[in-house]
Amino acid sequence: MACEHKFYDYLHLKALYFEPKTLIIGTFNPEWPIDNHAEWFYGRTGNNYFWDVLPRMFNTEGLRHAGPVEWKNFCHQQKVVITDLIASIEDADEHNPHHLEVIGEFMDAEFANVFNEFERTGIIGLLQQHPTISAVYFTRQEGVELFDVEINEVIAYCHQNDIYFSHLLTPSKNARFQMRGWEPQDPNMARTLPNFIYEKWCDNWNQNINQ
C-alpha cells in the first residue's frame, strides 16, 4: 500500500480562493507513522522553524506556536502557497518494518535510497495553472538526485518565464550544523537557530515580491 502525503489534498492547489504570488516547495510529509503530529505543512514545530521564519520574511510576527488556522490565514493574506515534490511513495509497504523505520525518520536522502516508485506533484504544471506566481523557493539545498532532477527542470522553467527561483536553507533543526562561526549581522539579534535561518533566507529572498 502506497504511503501518501499527509496533506495530499492540498498539494495540487485545487481549493485556492486567491491568486498566489509566492510558491514554497518542500519534499515529502508522509501520512505514516501515526506519531507524525504535523497539522499542516512544516507542522512538526518541535524541530522545525518554518513558521517562525516565514512570517518574518513579510515583516510580521512568527507563528511557530500558532496552528493551521493561523498558518492558512497568513498564506491567504500574503498570497503564499505551499506544496511538496512528492505526493506519494508508491512502493512503500506499511507492513514492512524497514519501510516504516525509514519513513518515520523523515530523511529525504533515505527515501531515495530505499524506494523507487514515486507519484510527483508536478510543480511545472502548478506554475502553468497559476501564472500569478512570481517567486518560487525550495526549502532544501542540492544533493539528492531524487529531488535535484525535477528542481533543475523547475529552475529552467522559472528562468524561461521570468519567475524568481531560489533555494532556501532547511528550516529544520538540521540547519544547526551550518551555524558554526556565524554571528548575527544585527548586534541586537540573539545567536539562535531561528535567527540564523532567518538571515540565510534573507540572503536569497526576493523582497520585491512582497510589495
Automatic annotation (TrEMBL):
<protein>
    <recommendedName>
        <fullName>G/U mismatch-specific uracil-DNA glycosylase</fullName>
    </recommendedName>
</protein>
<dbReference type="InterPro" id="IPR036895">
    <property type="entry name" value="Uracil-DNA_glycosylase-like_sf"/>
</dbReference>
